[in-house]
Write a structure and sequence with these properties.
The termini are far apart. Helix content is 85%, strand content 0%. Helix 2 runs antiparallel to helix 3. By secondary structure, it is mostly helical.
Length: 86
């Protein structure tokens, strides 16, 4: 019979491995998104920590405009629209 310490150590390694696998899968999903959108999302999250509503709204507007001007975003929107057409 294994000791409690051995069982805890084994469970800890298993939990860490699962967490790392999930983090890597999430990172791959984020890497597949348009870079401009990821950049502005990160910027918005950091800025939200110390901004008021008016500043956050202006920042959101800047981010949306930058994303819609991005060639990558335009391409993906076009692909989305094309898939939805009968």
């Amino acid at each position: 019979m294994r000791s409690a310490t051995a069982r805890i150590s084994s469970a800890s390694r298993s939990w860490r491995r699962a967490l790392l696998e999930e983090a890597e899968a999430f990172a791959h999903r984020v890497a597949a998104f348009p870079r401009v959108g990821v950049k502005w999302t990160k910027h918005g999250l950091h800025r939200a920590l110390d901004s008021d509503f008016a500043s956050a709204t202006r920042s959101d507007e800047e981010a949306e405009l930058a994303c819609f001007r991005s060639p990558d975003t335009r391409e993906r929107l076009s692909e989305f629209v094309d898939r939805k057409r009968p």
